[in-house]
Amino acid sequence: MNYKRKPLQFNNKQFRLNDKGLSLVELLVAVAILAIILVPLLNSFVMGAKANSRAERMQTETLLAQNILEELKGKSIEEVAEKLGYDGNLDMDFSREEPYVFNVKDISFRGYDFDARIKLDPTPYYEVQNTEEYGDYNKFQMPIIEEINKDTNVLALESDEMDHAKTELYYNHLTYIANLDSADEDDYLTREEFDDEIKYDLRRRIEVNLTKNLTGFLVNVNYDYSAPAIRGAGEVSYVIYEDYIEPKLEGLYVFYYPTKNDAVIVNTHDFNEEDFYIDLFLIRQEEENSIGNDNVKVKAVSSDKIHIYSNTEIIELTGAVLNKGLVKKENQRNRIYEVTVSLYQGGKNFAKEAFALELTSTKGE
């Protein structure tokens, strides 16, 4: 059987395209929808740009204030005053009642102009306010720690001179008794008896001689030992140090082991009124089973140019200045400050509304 296929037929009406345009109402609706979407989006862009600008300016202000603080920390108050043109009175005494205030104008930094007000205030550190935060640091006397250098300092150190002195004093005693016309064995002390007695009777005089001339100092230090209660012991002397120091003498360090009666005599020659003080350090050394006294008598003859530092008690003092403790200390002075840096917009003469930023830190010297 033969079948004939019918050709496919399409309904043209079903596939006819719509060629109508947008109506005005549809266009307005589309524009309104677009506006509703874009306006907040654009506003967020604008707000983001403003926030970025504020953040950049704040970062610039913070960086500038930190730079100023760091630069201040590396300078003394005198250097700060000189650099910033401070024309007021620099009172370094720890009792100053007002802060130092420096105004710096026309600072250009990263494209911005600023004025800065810098305040250095030592007063928070005068009295104890809060033991965890503040203390009377500006009343502290800073120790001066220096290496004992023989070029500028004298080191007079007692080593075995005392043992030698005891031996010589005992020999003097034996010689004295031997020369007596009516001496007998009971007049002689055995060495053991002598050693027991001299523990309580040994005397030592430290004699320091300082002679000044145009180029330096002649320094002589003698240790003189005696035992007055022991017949014929007499006195023996040892030169501990002798040398010429030029051009200046910064300190004289005298080390000694204590006896029952110690005295220091300082003889100064040719010192002038304008000469600086000589620092004398009397350093008592500890010795096992020592029965020496913890005090010493000091007499400085013909000069008041001696400053004495010692770790022992000085019970008599003539013609010298005594300082507490063995370590030399500086005078009380302002050493720590609360530092405040306030930034203002430039060119507005520090007006209140021009205030930008304030940072606070601490500066020590």
How would you sum up this structure, described in words?
By secondary structure, the protein is of the alpha/beta class. The chain has two domains: 61-140 and 335-364, 2-Layer Sandwich (Pantoate--beta-alanine Ligase, Chain: A,domain 2), CATH 3.30.1300; 153-323, no CATH class. Helix content is 24%, strand content 33%. The chain has four helices and 15 strands. The chain has helices at residues 24-73, 77-83, 161-178, 191-201, and strands spanning 100-109, 112-121, 153-157, 203-212, 217-226, 235-245, 251-256, 261-269, 278-284, 295-301, 306-310, 313-318, 321-323, 336-345, 355-364. It has a six-stranded mixed beta sheet. A five-stranded parallel beta sheet has the order 3-7-9-11-13, with no helix packed on it. A hairpin with a 4-residue loop joins strand 4 and strand 5 (217-226). The longest helix has 50 residues, at 24-73. The chain is rod-shaped, with a radius of gyration of 44 Å. Mean pLDDT is 81; it is low at 129-135.
- Structural class of the secondary elements? alpha/beta
- The number of domains is 2
Tell me the span between the first and last alpha carbons. 121 Å
Number of strands: 15
Strand content: 25-35%
Strand order in space, largest sheet: 6-5-4-8-10-12
What global shape is seen?
rod-shaped
Radius of gyration: 44 Å
> What ranges have pLDDT less than 50 throughout 5 or more consecutive residues?
129-135
Q: What is the element string, with H for helices and E for strands? A: HHEEEHHEEEEEEEEEEEE
Number of helical regions: 4
Q: What level of helicity do the residues show?
A: 10-25%
How would you characterize the largest beta sheet? 6 strands, mixed
Mean pLDDT over all positions: 81
